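Hi, here's the filled form for the chain we discussed.

Project: internal
Contact: R.S.
Residues: 896
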Amino acid sequence: GIQLFHGQFGGAWPGVSPQIKCLSESWEEHIRWTAKECKRLNLNFTMQNCPGWSYAGGPWIKPENSMRHLVYSRTDIEGGSRKKIQLTKPQESEEEWRDYEDLFVVAFPTPEDDTGNRLIPTEIKSNRDNLPWKECLGGQKSLTLPASLSEPTIIEVSFDKKTTLRTVEFPPINSFSHAWCYSPGVTVTVYAVSSGKTEPVAHMEMPASNWQDDKPISIACKEVTSDTYRIEIENRHEMNLSHIDFYSAARQQNWESEAAWTLRRIVRENYPAQSETAWINSSKIIDITPEMNSNGILSWDAPKGRWTILRIGHVNTGMKNGPAPLEATGWECNKLDATGIKANFAGYIGRLINEDSGILKNGLLQGVLLDSWECKTQTWTPKLDSLFQKKWHYPLLSMLPAIFGYVIDNPEKTARFLRDWRVTLNDLLVNNFFGEMKNLAENNKLTVSFETACGDVFPGDIMEYYKYADIPMCEFWQPKMDSFVGSIEFKPVKPCVSAARMYGKKRVAAESFTSFDLTWNEHPRFLKDRADEHFARGVTYPVFHTYTHNPRTDFLPPGSSFGSNIGTPFLRLQTWWQHMPFFTDYLARCAYMLESGCPVSDVLMYLGDEQNHKPAQSLDFPEGYSYDYCNRDVLLNRLSVNDGKMVTPEGISYRILWLYDCKRMLPETLEKILSFVKQGIIVVGNPPDNIATLSGGKEAELRFRKVIKELWGHGEEKVRKVGKGKVYRSDMESVLDAEKIQKDINVDFSDVHWLHRRTADADFYFVSTPVDKGYKGNISFRSKGFAEIWDPLTGEITKAFSTTNKNGCTAIEMNMPAGTSRFVVFRKNESRQAKAPLFYTKKMEMQTPWEIRFSPGWGIPDSPVFIDQLKPWKDLPLTEEGKSFSGTAVYTASFN
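And the returned structure, exactly as it came back:
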């Protein structure tokens, strides 16, 4: 089928007259014609849910129903008398579209040294003194640091008096190097310098971020007083730096992310020692909202002391759908309230399928897509404070300043609140946006697909929203790279694949072969390599990016691409278009196999209760084994134990539960895990340090401590028997060895890609080699039966020569040239389809002339061309234009 987008970067469409405006009668006629053609050709017709490819919005969305952000202004006063103060309206400017609404006014005693202003160095020194540090630290000029692991960049700043430094603020991680935002490779260490001695006061390995990260990152410092501080920056890659700010005020470490203003991995460095006087005392936070009138004038009897007052409201974030034609561009809809997606659906897809007047009524549209999340984050929706209280049983206002970075009572309590805050936003997003989108689609007999949102940009559960997708969807780009969009870290696949498996979805679609590096030398063999790698990762259904409409015929092939350099040009005038059936048949065979049966993996990684960023996608894991992700929703609601294994309702089973990076957990999660262990499950991981929530009080804390004791005991036991199961503190490889779990695939070739699935009648493995490396030798599989090798390129099935050992593993001699793939199938019963393999016993060298015929019109006047031996076209006796020919030529030779 097809997925239809109406995108536009601006300007008129070339060669089209008259221009066709989006949503006009003419546009509707063309959309209806497309739908009818799809029906005639038996193709599914899916449309992006709004104009453009991001994300869900349009001119029908009013500012009050747009994505909303919290905003605040700060006023400091000296108390002890009645105050009448004009509180600053907390928005940058007065555009009507911002639609500012007041929410709360809160006051608290001003923490020690918290002026709200940054510290200004009087002197700056650096080992890179050729760079404009004064302008950079002042935020007036960016500079570029060379990669410097062996020789860190050192900046030493001095102040005119001894100063307590509690917070250092760096620019957004995405701004360091966009290509490396998910794996920044930057480490910052802060030292206090006194009498020639240095004392470390902060250390941070900059966490994985996201490609839309536009918020600075705060580093908390140990409370030391000095007039000089030193910053050391180790950066694996070239790094842009736009500012470094210094504050005496205390701020929560990485609060910009933990409060859901952006997506970054939770920083695990221990919080440095600071005085409680630098933090807010929660018992002294006062709600003075009733004391402010509608004009923002506060009349308040302020108690004695220094007070900080926050006027808090919310505004339209300003995000719009796009890139779309001007007439079809508007605000992104509210993602945390169901009214948002309802309004967006009614304005576009609902209008098109309206049973009375819609051009796509009566089933002409089969699916709706939510494509690329490019609308950043959202931190408010109406009644969020009451929804928060209902969920967590404590008032949002009691901890509200923490959303703006303040430490309340202590960093640990603040972190637990911010976790509750993130989970609240996630629950609203999952149910009120994605869940409601599912309802709207289902009620209109449409399938719905979601591409990656949480864990890519939005700070939510990286799996849960996919439960509402009929077809979970991810994406992969070409060419493969270590960084940027060609990196597996930049465009994650595993969260989508795992979500599909955990929520019972057979199909894992992927926007495939997307690119910013269009060179017109892309070809199916090169593309097959990218497809094979992602088939092995769990993708089952490639969706080509992109087929561009090319109506003109008055120029030579290959035609025009999408956006001049975006995507792989799958076009009817491509030089290799006549060979596309071989490629699509190959992909179809693979897709059929990969959607059969259930995947086989030994390990289930629990993502934890903190709603963190996705784990590193290139995580070090024992070779020959595989694992999937599991979130809290699945652990509590979809898994059961059968015969000592965790099992999904669809029959996917796992032997080991891996508690990876679970530093804070919930008592109900641990109780569920304990019940699994008692039934025979193996758990690998250390006990969590703290409870994850502020909810539940002492009773929750007691439950938490009790179940930890039952699972891990008192000491440092490497393995503990609990019921029928065990709890290990060892590394994964040691546990797999101790439990005598054989490798699922054993091959002396680390570049092989593989995946294992199982049906009622057979086990089968997808195995592929990269485009530049082949493999010939034995591969051992943890399966037995009648072994066959299926070639998805030709459809040929041959018998395999195999030997099975006493552990039930079967070794097969495999000959896999570079860029090949096979399905190795182990049937329970022998098949008559399989043929005996052919062995070639003789090779003949052809010493004969060749005739080459080229297509006319490409600067090759003399056709055919005769040559004595084969050689590249650039070495043929052709014109310069002819040597650049790209297309199909016919070679003819005669031999006996």
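Let me know if anything looks off before we file it.
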